Amino acid sequence: MAENGETQQQVTHMNPRIEKDRQSILDAQKKGKGALFKTYLRLSGPGWLQSGITVGGVSFSSSLYLGVLVGVSMMWLQPLAMILGIIMLGAIAYVTLSIRERPLKAINDHVSPVLGWSWLLASMAANLVWSMPQYVLGTRALQQNLSPNFLGGIPDPWGRIICVGFILAICITATMFYGAGGRGVKIFEIIIKSIVSMIVLSFM
């Protein structure tokens, strides 16, 4: 019991935001389904960011690449990959919020270190795969749509380098503010939710 209490106190100290979100969910459960739905919606910011990254440029580029390789016969693979991704994200979220340990440490201790480190490396590779198409789309949007006279007129590779550096600076700044918490996180999540909602409505 003392060890469990010590672990709980340590996790609470390292992850105060997670503990605060967990407590808000527990409080909302006592108030009813309406309050619980509002709480889940308020805490769904990272999910909106994830969907904005994966369902956007990654789905487009992977579908295009798959179509070039094998034609339309394998296009069913893309929706299947989305479903598996949802299941995986749900499993990771459940493990993260249901135990009093770090997910990597829990998998290494209770399942297998091979599985734990393989999961970590696969997650890092997946983040690279998700991110790279965004830089391509962002660069083309800057050069061809937003600033064709200025950025579009700079010869490559310098034009691309300037665009990528600009996008990277925005990403680093947003990540630092998001990690720091506070009001910046709420503003960032509102912007992400608005952008993703507009994209979804555009396809309806």
Tags for this model:
single chain, 204 residues, mainly alpha, 2 domains, 9 helices, disordered N terminus
Write the layout of secondary structure elements.
Blueprint: H1 2-14, H2 16-31, H3 33-42, H4 45-70, H5 77-98, H6 103-110, H7 113-146, H8 158-180, H9 183-202
Subunit organisation of the chains = single chain
Largest sheet: none
Q: What's the overall average pLDDT, rounded?
A: 77
Which shape, going by the Cα principal axes? Answer: globular
Structural class: mainly alpha
Can you tell me the residue ranges where pLDDT is under 50 for at least 5 consecutive residues? Answer: 1-13
Order of helices and strands: HHHHHHHHH
Number of helical segments with 4 or more residues: 9
Walk me through this protein's architecture.
By secondary structure, this protein is an all-alpha fold. It has 2 domains: 1-43, no CATH class; 44-202, no CATH class. Helix content is 84%, strand content 0%. It contains 9 helices and no strands. Helix 4 crosses helix 9 (183-202) and helix 7 (113-146) crosses helix 8 (158-180). It is globular and about 60 Å long. The model is unreliable at 1-13 (pLDDT under 50).
